[in-house]
Amino acid sequence: MNKVAKLLAALATAALCLSPMPLLAKDLTIGAIGTLSGGATDWGVATQRGVQLAIDEVNAQGGLKIGGETYTPHLIIYDDQYTGQGGATAATRLVNADHAKFIIGPIGTPPTLAALAITTPAKVLMLDDGFSPKILGPKNTYNFRISATPQEFAPAMIGWLKKNYPKTKRVAIVDPNDSVGQQVMPILLKGYKADGFDVAFTEMYDRSTKDFTPLLTRMMANKIDVLDLSSSAPAEAGLLLKQARQVGFKGVIIQIGGPSVEENLAVAGPLAEDFISFDFFNPDNPLAKKFGDAYAKKYGSTMSSWCPVMYNAAKILFEAMHRANSIDVDAVKAELPKMTGYETIFGPLHWGGKETYGIDHQLLADIVIEQVKDGKIVRRDVVSMY
Amino acid sequence: MLSLPVLAQVVVNGVNLGAIYILMALGFTMIFGIMRIVNFAHGAFAMLGGFALYFLLMDAHVPFLLALPLGALLVGAGSLLAERFVLRHLYHNELQGMIATLGLSMVMIYLAAIVFGVSQRSVPAVYSEIFFFGPLVVPMDRLVVLGIAAVTLLLFFLFMRYTKPGLAMRVAAQDLEVAEAQGINAAAHYQAAFFIASSLAALAGGLIGQLYALSPFMGATPLMKSFIVVILGGLGSIPGAALGGLLLGMAESSLTTFFGASTAQLASFGIVMLVLVLRPQGLFGHAERDS
Q1: Which residues pair with A290 in a beta bridge?
Q2: Residues A78 and A125 in one domain
Q3: How confident is chain B (291 residues) per 10-residue block, as mean pLDDT?
Q4: Domain range for residue A69?
Q5: Residue A178 and residue A132 share a domain
Q6: Fewer Cβ close by (within 10 Å): the C or N end of chain B?
Q7: Are the beta carbons of B260 and A203 separated by less than 8 Å?
Q8: Mean of pLDDT values over A53-68
Q9: Cα distance between residue B24 and residue B226, in whole Å
Q10: Residue B288 has what DSSP assignment?
Q11: Which of A39, A215, A238 sits opposite B261 (nearest CB)?
């Protein structure tokens, strides 16, 4: 054996000995479903990055040590194309071809409802998000919603708006004309009316709309005090924000239907000044800060609001496996609701939803109300959903 | 709602929308008119134009009025690669050309997603002033788009109408064999036409990127609007693209303002269906003759 070969052999042996991964670690497939094509690709990338960061943490510590075994989680993610068909296809592949027992995602009602139709009968545990109330129910016991919906956060946000902008009265709500917008609009209508606001203008637009000036001209004729961008995705919300200011709207612009301050600021630039929305992510939380640093180190670019949500879901799942001391789906599923108080990047874990959905599988957390001031996002308040 | 200020704002919004649609539709209709290819990659070239402007402004610090045409020309030059390796064998072959450009579009979009990332970004506003003329509101950036669209349309019309290369392109479009018999190098003129059309798309993309937002997927809506405009105006017709763009802009502006966004969307496609039924060649198009 020549010197080079000996050196290589020695290096290989040293690498194996020093590796944090035990040699007999078993693979553990963590499935994920996210939108990896089209206008909502940001969400799928956020899912992939969030879950991968949680997996990286586990693997850096030598894997998951459960029931005398060591497991090395690895991620398989498929594109749902933000459609029901895409969600069903992705879930079918994960369940039947990859034999995944745990799935994180999708985000959004159409792919989530379709994926649930595959994962529930197969007894696959899914931690997902979508605004439809149908996603949670007493029959969907293998499903947990890992982010709050307008049903949970709208009353808190509207209450905050009333308290901090008492002179505002007439509200406009603008939503996309799809299943998400159609579900969120009635929730916000009810919430605003309950708090004494007059919803003087509602409009639903096609998802592909880029120029909102005609819609906003129509809105301006209604003498509006508050424009709520509701469930508009960043692709549209940022443009609505920018164009509302361009057509001379001087009232309050808020987004109560979903968190996306950073993305909207990126699109609207200086015209995002005074925009109000919220985030689940509180950078003052030490765990959140650690996550933010890890994200910046690995990916560097702007972080979608969904990335910490998906990271959080994966962390909760791994903790449930630890506590159950098993990777059996039923054992992990039974452990999840008992984890109240577990410290997450969003604060102490709390499951609720029994009154609204008939099952306590809805994650609840504090929300951080943010506003754009001098081109920067500043924290205005923290309000609780429970 | 039917007050004079609202009506005036409707007209201002409609003309602005129309200007953007015209810019996008010009190159699209040119490629079809000359090469007989329905270019599904037109939106992707617009997207590249948006990113070219972004990097020229942000990284190379080139002034906006120089960065915009420079970015468009760079994309136009790059498009010649697509012309050489994808489109050259598909001229006058509508079906295969359509499928090939669809594939080309997907490759370009997802390469851009890998290279530029999927998050939306904004081209910093060079013109952020907002003018108030009484009750009328006109943002400066829209006025700039209007001016650039008008100048581009005029230059393009003059080029096609009064220059020898423009005349040669029109001859090649009408009858390839006759053009070649007259000594016109059709292949070279096809390349030139593709370069011009892609540059126009990139120019429109730069303006769209600045007015709205940049993302690898930003070309889809402008492409769809281009379809509507050229169907309205007539495939291959430049005056048709101008009138079609203006009509669509005004229709969307007035219908959205008075009847809502969903009605406007429905009406856009309803008008196209009506045109296809009553006048399939569009307002300025020529009916195909059976051979």
Answers
A1: none
A2: yes
A3: 77 87 90 87 96 94 93 96 88 86 94 85 79 81 88 90 89 82 86 93 91 88 89 85 90 86 81 85 70 42
A4: 9-148+283-348
A5: no
A6: C
A7: yes
A8: 94
A9: 6
A10: P
A11: A215
